[in-house]
Fold this sequence. Notes:
433 residues, alpha/beta, four-stranded mixed β-sheet, three-stranded antiparallel β-sheet, 12 strands, globular, binds uracil
Amino acid sequence: xxxxxxxxxxxxxxxxxxxxxxxxxxxxxxxxxxxxxxxxxxxxxxxxxxxxxxxxxxxxxxxxxxxxxxxxxxxxxxxxxxxxxxxxxxxxxxxxxxxxxxxxxxxxxxxxxxxxxxxxxxxxxxxxxxxxxxxxxxxxxxxxxxxxxxxxxxxxxxxxxxxxxxxxxxxxxxxxxxxxxxxxxxxxxxxxxxxxxxxxxxxxxxxxxxxxxxxxxxxxxxxxxxxxxxxxxxxxxxxxxxxxxxxxxxxxxxxxxxxxxxxxxxxxxxxxxxxxxxxxxxxxxxxxxxxxxxxxxxxxxxxxxxxxxxxxxxxxxxxxxxxxxxxxxxxxxxxxxxxxxxxxxxxxxxxxxxxxxxxxxxxxxxxxxxxxxxxxxxxxxxxxxxxxxxxxxxxxxxxxxxxxxxxxxxxxxxxxxxxxxxxxxxxxxxxxx
Length: 433
Ligand code: URA
């Protein structure tokens, strides 16, 4: 086997054999494949696609590029994963809420990808916190606390860890094959009994139309169920940020508000968290209504916050995150409003452009080696249908310098359309089982 001929096959629209794709996945993990070859492979798959069998073979090869965990715990081992959006910090609330309901959540997560934020980058906005744990660490934290949000370790889906970082900076994200293999390799390697997928559609998602999202959701659900993991998907709206904040520390702050029981801080984020968690718990039996009620209780009672704080401490973060999160999260030196250039209703929000504005502020990566500034981003972002008057804020900008603030302000004004008619659709568009 050699990388050159595997890439050439895909370039010629021929899906390589299962053995070849398995070899490539191993090569990503053991460095038999170079960065240039991984980038060329990702671009060829992105442009020409694989067959259904090829997608499953790549997924399984990437899953088996490291260890596949199995568990012996007194509750179900479940997880959720999103295909990527902006202001999507569901995981930080859902994992501890599920843990408080007796579920075990070994959540192997990703970093920012293209314009979308990554759960790991958000968590690492908490000073001292390190998401790089060993497999033993993942096992211990999951068993003791109920949830562990961590990076793919050297042992779990190492092929995805490498390919993910390369896709982030090579415009090779929007591929059903690569997204399926990426998400499911790490989720299946984590040894889950059940999984719920949040397949985002809209201006801030990788899938821009409900048709594309439907194809991705079906590919994910079929591949995961085929591999023995009971899986459902919700197709959800990403035509505007889910939370009112974008940016790593700023999204953690919103999650802390929600975990403190303050639903109004981010009602859409709260509602989707409950819907995803209820769908997930119901995969194991019982009704979604019962599960939703348990999850709401877990948050309002403070139990979910306690689990989150315990996980933060176990990952090396401050021991008093629940009480003192305001003082721990970093703040940007420049904070100011971006104002509306005209009066009217917010009729469209280009989520991808907002996400890229945050990357431009330093909140995401332009190249693999970039260091993220956790403090920058946006807060109080308007929502579709909101009425704004000229000069009123569209959002508040948190920046490290005047130059980056000015560039982001221009991008944000261009990304938010103000017009005559209010407009917004449902948060949950379709359920796929
Ligand atoms: N999340 C992942 O883990 N991988 C992708 O490719 C997209 C979203």
